[in-house]
Specification:
InterPro entries: Peptidase_C39_single_dom. The protein has one domain: Alpha-Beta Complex (Cathepsin B, Chain A), CATH 3.90.70. The radius of gyration is 15 Å and the shape is globular. Strands 1, 2, 3, 4, 5, 6 and 7 form a seven-stranded antiparallel beta sheet that branches. By secondary structure, it is of the alpha+beta class. It is built from five helices and seven strands.
Length: about 170
């Protein structure tokens, strides 16, 4: 159940201007970050970002390296509170959210993956993500939350130096 504060959010939002880069092995983090940075007007690619990273085989280390890569390119990086409503508030404000999730039981490929939350539908209780090789993955709030919890509820925003997150203004 979402808190009452989320009732003031639009019923449906989708940030269609967020580019999509299909993810290949150990390129999920760079692909997701490239989507976010290009949406902010920074021209980069998963390959250029991948060349800057050291720990492509460890998701926890990669998360830290992705944050550092965004900062090197002049972006601020803001961790989000580990609550679904924080993700919704940011997406409603036009901010895609980079998350680390464990989408399910996978016997091949990485057990966790990076994805970008680009939309939601409150009535249908669904999120829209750029994830893996899927440009527009629809996940129920419950399924996303389970996978996100298994991924440690890691979520960040990348914003230009002159902007603050919507959640910094008293929202969840």
């Amino acid at each position: 159940m979402l808190p009452a504060e989320t009732a003031s959010l639009p019923e449906r939002v989708e940030l269609t201007g967020v580019p999509f880069y299909p993810q290949s092995d150990y390129q999920g983090g760079p692909a997701a970050l490239a989507s976010m940075l290009n949406q902010r007007g920074l021209e980069t690619s998963p390959g250029l970002l991948r060349a800057q990273l050291q720990h492509l085989d460890r998701e926890e280390a990669m998360a830290t390296e992705l944050e550092a890569a965004a900062r090197r390119l002049g972006m601020q990086v803001f961790p989000l509170a580990p609550r679904l409503e924080s993700v919704l508030v940011e997406v409603a404000a036009g901010n895609p959210v980079l998350v680390l999730q464990h989408p399910g039981l996978s016997w091949r490929g990485p057990s966790r993956q990076f994805a970008v939350v680009i939309g939601f539908d409150r009535r249908e209780r669904q999120l829209v993500l750029r994830s893996g090789t899927t440009r527009r993955l629809i996940a129920s709030f419950a399924d996303f939350d389970r996978g996100w919890a298994k991924g440690g509820r890691w979520a960040v925003l990348t914003l230009p130096a002159d902007r603050l997150p919507a959640t910094a203004h008293g929202h969840p």
